[in-house]
Amino acid sequence: MPKSRIRKKADFTPPPAKQTNIKLTSRSWVAPLMLAMFLIGLAWIVVFYVTAGDMPVDSLGNWNIVVGFGFIAAGFVVSTQWK
């Protein structure tokens, strides 16, 4: 029985690496704004509890807590822009 010819395979050559230009823009405003939102929200809630509901906005009542957490949530939203 005759032997079949063995085909020589070419050596594996990996494809050339893609050149990706990642441009990280300077977002120096993100960290200060994020921290400011966190601190404003925290201060809003603390002032509400310390003054027994008389401040920061008396007419809002217990909704002042929602406003404080809203500032904190906005800080988390801004934090997604940080690179």
Main features:
83 residues; mainly alpha; 2 helices; rod-shaped
Overall description:
The structure is a single chain. With 83 residues, this protein is an all-alpha fold. 46% of the residues lie in helices and 0% in strands. The chain has two helices and no strands. It has helices spanning 30-50, 63-79. The longest helix is centred in the middle third of the chain and has 21 residues, at 30-50. The termini are far apart.
Strand content: under 5%
Class per helix and strand makeup: mainly alpha
* Unreliable segments of 5+ consecutive residues: none
Principal-axis shape: rod-shaped
Radius of gyration: 30 Å
Order of helices and strands: HH
Task: Write down how many β-strands occur, each being a DSSP E stretch of 2 or more residues.
Answer: 0
Number of helices: 2
Report mean pLDDT, rounded to a whole number: 86
Helical content band: 40-55%
Task: State the end-to-end distance.
Answer: 68 Å
Q: What's a quick, concise take on this entry?
A:
This protein is mainly alpha-helical. It has helices at about 30-50, 65-80.
Task: Annotate the secondary structure layout.
Elements: H1 30-50, H2 63-79
Helix pairs in contact: 1-2
